[in-house]
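DM from R.C. (forwarded with permission)

"hey, sorry to bug you on a friday — could you get me a structure for this? deadline for the figure draft is monday and I only need the backbone to look sensible"
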Amino acid sequence: MVGAGETSVPCGDDGRGRRATTAVIAGITVVGWRAGAGAVATIGSVRERGGGGFSFGQRVALWVVPKLTALLLALVGSTLRFEVIAEEGVTPATPPASGIFCFWHRCTLPAGWYFRKFRCSILISRSFDGELIARTLGLLGYNSVRGSSSRGGATGLMAMRDVVARGEAVVFTADGPRGPIYQTKIGPVKLAAMTGEEMGCFYLLPTRAWAMRSWDRFLVPLPFSRVVVSWTRAVVAPGPDADAAALESKRVELYDALERARLRAEEHVAQRREK
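My reply, with the result:
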C-alpha cells in the first residue's frame, strides 16, 4: 500500500521472474508481487522454511508444536457437537464455500476444527507465532497467505484477491493478530472492495471452555462440549471506488455484524443453561 513516506513500485518484471500487479482502493494504489520464487506473499499449503530467521529452539518448536497441537485439536474436535443458529433469512455457509468470511480471534480453535472441510485460505502474519499457526492449520487442510494488517498487508491482500477470484474461500480473524479484542481491522473491507464479495460473519462459542488470560481471552473448548455456531447477515462489499469514509463505514458495519453473532451465541448458551 502506498502511503505517506512510502514509494510506489512500477509494474513489470523485477528480473527474478516476479510480476508486479496493482489495484486501486479508495484512491490508494496497492502494489504486490505475484506469488512465485522469493515472492513476498505466498498461497498454498504450508511448506517448511529453510530455518532462516529462526533460532534453534524456535525451529524445534516449529517441528513439534504444530503436530502436537493438530493432534490434540483432532482428538478434542472429534468429541465436539456443533449447533448452528442464524439470523432470520440467513443461510449458513456449507462446504465447499467461496467468498470472504470473518470471525473474532478468540474462537480460532473451534473455528479451525469446524471449518476444516471448507478448504479456506487464511491471512497469517509472518512472525514466529504466525509460522506456528500456519503450520498447524496446514495439517488440518488450510492454505495460508502470509502477511498482516501492518507488514506485508498489501501483498497479502493481493494474494487473497487471487484466491477469491478462483472461487475459493478466505477467512479473517477480524481483530487479529494482536487486537484490541472485538475491534475490526480494515483488511477484510479492502478485500471486499477489491473483489465485490460480501463479508460473511460468524462466531463460535463452546458451552464449556477454558478462557485463557490473553488479550483475546482465547477459548479452548473442553472435550464433549457443545459449540454454538452463530451466523448473522453478511455485510455487502463497498464499491471499488469507495473513499476512506465509505471504507470506515463498512468497517463499523462489519463490527456490528460480528458483535451480533457473538451476542446471539452468548444469549443462546445462557438460555440453554436456564432450562
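R.C.: lifesaver. The chain has one domain: 39-274.
me: no worries. The first strand starts at residue 20 and ends at 25.
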